[in-house]
Design a protein that fits this description.
single chain; 376 residues; alpha/beta; TIM Barrel; eight-stranded parallel β-sheet; 8% strand; globular
Length: 376
Amino acid sequence: MKKALALGLLGIVVFCLPCPSQVQEGFFGLHQNKYTRGEPWPTVPFGIRRTVSDRVTWDDLETCAGGPNPNNPCYHWGRNREDGDLDKVVNDSVAHGVDVMFTVYDTAGWISNRGERCRAKGVPDANCAGPADLDCGSNSIGLCDPPADVDAVVGSGEGDGSDKTFKDFITAVATRYGKKIKYWEMWNEAPNIRSSNPEYWTFKQWARMTKDFHDAIKAVNPEAVVLGANTCVCFPRGSADFEEWTAGYFAALDKYGPSVVDGITYHGYALRPERNVELVHKLLEIMGRHASVRGKPIYDSEDAWPGGNVFTKWNGKPDWDLRSAWLARSLIVNASLGAKAYIFFGWDLGPVGQMWARDREPWDCTTPNKDGKMGY
């Protein structure tokens, strides 16, 4: 039994599974990492491509103050310094009939209130709330912190500033791509210290930026699906607690009413997929207490078996029997919980849920790619 079993079971889930809400054909989505480096388009059918693995973060796309005009040279929609290419990802997705979910994260370093340039409060510029934040990770110093202008007084946490930089960035993205991007996710793994340091973020800031995110997108494309900042059970030391962060965020969103977001996303990553039942039930319980999100659709925007070489054979080869079984269980569980989409991480993203690789042997793959080379 090989990986084809997972694909067959996916078809059963998509077309036949009885559950509280109809599972749509585009339920299954993918992340891909090496597409701009000559890797072919995935050979399995999928309905959503999420951009979080494509090296198209806010910091990658806007390297200086670009304003709302997408033609400003501060923006890098094609090949950027991290080898990402948002133009290619979006346009090729549209050409293949695949919806795009654009996910924001990594505050542009030049506007982060604790960016790599910062030495102390007000040094070297007034946008520094303190020294550079090393907790974001060695490759993303200061990128997990708020933009300086979200607060009237830099670093106050009040969320009462102009937030102009963020609004301009989102306006520029929305203007360039229009209806080519269907789903917009406010932030990736907001409780995760590597994405947003809870020591320096406040719920007032999150709510304000979510409102500005919504308004900027809807002004360009009223049909867009705007999703709140992503919540997760995240484990890096210093990350926020899932329940506390989620409840605090939703409470702050209530200030802006029931139309501030169109849906909420979560992440799985359980060795036993059935653990997502507890996670989703808790999420729905918290949502039910807040008018801003009550009754809104939920999306599993990132899920896979955990890393650490799980589901491998004694010789290091992937055990596709175990992986296929895990994927089938995970799809069924999340669909039965009412998730509108399940986006797998990913097509070529080891050491977690990797499905494909051109340069790793042996993979026990059963189906050749369209170019005749190793497939899935």
